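Researcher: Here's a chain I'd like modeled. Treat it as a single chain, no partners, no ligands.
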Amino acid sequence: MSRLIILSLLLSGSALAQAVSTRPMPTQPMPPRAAQAQTPSAPVDAVDPFIGTGGEGHTFPGATAPFGMVQLSPDTDTSCEIRKCYGHAAGYRYDDPTIQGFSHTHFSGAGHSDLGDVLVMPVSGATVSLDPGDPTLPGSGYRSRFAHATEEAHPGYYAVTLDDAKVRAEMTAGTRIGVHRYTFAAGAQAHLVIDLRSSLYNYPGKISWSSLRLMPDGTLTGMRETRGWAPGRKLYFAMRFSAPIADHAFVNREADIPYKGFQGPSRGSDAVAETLGRALEARLDFGKLNTPLEVRVALSGVDEAGAIANLASEPGNFDTVRAATRSAWDTALGAIAIDAAKPMRTSVYTALYHSLLAPSVWSDADGRFRGPDDQVHVADGYIFRSTFSLWDTFRAEHPLLTLVQPARTTDDVVRSLVASRRFSPYGILPVWQFAGRETWTMIGYHAVPVIADAYLKGMRGYDANAALDAMVASAEYAPYGGLGEYMKRGYVPIDKEPEAASKTVEYAYDDWTIARMARSLGRTDVADRFEKRAGNWRNSFDVKTGFLRARKADGSFRTPFDPTAINYGSDYTEGNAWQYSWFMPHDQGGLFRLLGGDTKVVAKLDAMFDFDNSKIDYSHAEDIAGLIGQYIHGNEPSHHVAYLYDFAGKPWRTQERLKQIVDSQYKPTPDGLSGNDDLGQMSAWLVFTALGFYPVAPGTGEYVIGRPFVNRAAMTLPNGKLFTVIADGLSDTNRYVGSVTLNGVPLAKSVVTHAQILAGGELRFTMQATPNTRWATAKAARPYSMTPY
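Model: Modeled as a single isolated chain. Structure tokens:
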């Protein structure tokens, strides 16, 4: 997902031994990562955080804990201008030659830039520049050249040698803290630059206000408020050092920026030094150090006291924190034990790792958090989570969490979503939220299927009726995204609302999930109303052309019509008619009837994958990547399409397409993701697909069978049971499913249910070189559809 147009509302002890490694000095660079490669013995060792840091994956290699508030990672360039930051959305880009510094907040795979808070950079020598400098001019600022041969990254750990500074830099992180360790060359004068001006998606005046305070005990605290993607975002920090500060300087570079429209608070304090302004930096001098300098940093969205308390909540030095986080990753990644060829094992475990980074913790250790209303609230009995890229993640990321992290995330996620609605000035659920703030990015009300899918899978621990009320309120908020017109007409008219075709079908699916949950709760009136709305996708489907199209208020379809056209603000959202004509995941039977039956459906699917794009230029659309004909794996609207052959009674064709997609779109290299990971969605797709099934329509309780890409996977379930997937005879040649059994009994349908997985047991695939054209072809063997086939 890339979204540069922001929608607005009308109203606006082996673990410890492995964790403590020998740290190479700057004069002893590490060998290339390829030379270090060994057969991994544990899931945490199979992860390569560099996957996705090149190309358009937009991931970061730095240190973070599972769902951690802190993502401590290098920023290679933050100097890009507004609307030109796409390639640096995560701060780090693999092909950049320099590192500007290490900041504490990053998105994993977003299609939009922001964060990059509280940048720290070690500097050696007699003089210290307070400007990052030109990456093409060594020595022009505090940034430093580096070589990939000296980089090392594992879950919870990152290290690199800074060539110009002659410093070995190491990072680790806990849930709410980050810890730096800097080894300076012998005899060097050691300094740190703290730059509060630096930010991803930077532009003059983005920093509304910031502060720095040095306390008598040597603690450095501060805050900043930014006017970025999420306006009015506040972040506080507290920082402590393993060596005393010998000297310091606080500098306000405010004269360098044009924006003067905000006046921040002034206050007295007992600080040794305090500076307030819009462009603050600190120079901290430590003299000559005989031991590495450790810097402990905690964040808070509430206040500086919260940051100090968060710092105290995770005690210990660098090695202690690193060991604890490695242990946490061992547990989280150990939810699935995978046996596969090394490249695939690395890809799948890294995908699982990326799937466990968000939604991130936002409440402090004492439960306080800053909500969508910019007020402080308390999460009572749960951890408030934010970073919801819901248009992307409702599809596979959140369904994956219901299997591998149900107790830790699902109840927290649902309660966080409902709390966000309660504290929202608009009274609706989040659309695209981070740091407790709404961005209004993307379309739909996709918190709804996340909640419904969790509820229908038996996830409780929250007030289900209150959750349903929040879902209904979001679906009936007329000022949002043409919903008033949708409720009146049964479709969104393009002459009154952009991206109308996409909005119509996405609203219809969300409505269906509301109906499912309402029916389960016995709220018949709500279920009846939203079941009717779930069929609204038909109102924008043009039977004559066989495509979803945008209609005008007078009922006519907009012309001219080009099913391959992709433009921002057009009829579709980050896609075109080819992708969106399949988005009625709850009612493929209804779609197939309109298209003329199975044979015509399969022909249309083949036409999509085999389309000749040689005469089409999509360079204007940043998010259109990973093309296979008109199938676009680098963006989410296509993600379920390969599985639709199953719905047409041709599961072997799904198996063929999945092989084509996995081989061309994923690899264990920095450019190993074909498009933005989008907070785990691209990665969750691979995890599910590698296991042999995928949640085409969250809310059905079904996973559609594809084909496995691992030899064996054993999933440890929260109830203590084990669900094992086995692929007998899997090879590059044996790419087809010959037969499937569940607990030794032949599986007649092309689905496995959530209940069957939770019951534990064994899903066994027998792989072969030729298609089995008889398995799961009958209409009764196909996945769920609202309309019978």
